[in-house]
Amino acid sequence: MLGSIITNFRDVIALVLLFSFTIFVHELGHFLVALKCGMVIDVFSIGFGPAMWKKKVNGITYKIGWIPFGGYVALPQLDPSGMSSIQGEDEEGEEKAKEDKPVPRELPDILPWKKILVSVAGATGNIIFAIILATVIWLSPDAVTYRGGTVVGGVDSDSASYKAGLRKGDVILAINRKPVGTWYEVSLESLLVGPRQTVNVTVLTGETQRDVELTLVEKEGSEIPIFEGVERQPDPCLFASVFPDSPAAEAGLEPGDIVRSFDGTQVDCTDHFIDLVSGRGDEAVPIVVERDGELVEAMVTPKYNEEVKRALIGVRPVGLMVPWMQYKHPVRQVGGDASGIVRLLKALVNRKEAPKAAKGLGGPVAILATLWLSIKISLFNAIGFLRFLNVNLAILNLLPIPVLDGGHIVFSLWEGISRRKAHPKLVNALINVFAVLLIGVFVLLTFRDVDRIFPGLKRIFRRGDDEPAVEQVETNAILATNAVTGADPGTAE
Question: How far apart are CA 223 and CA 417, in angstroms?
Answer without folding.
Answer: 46
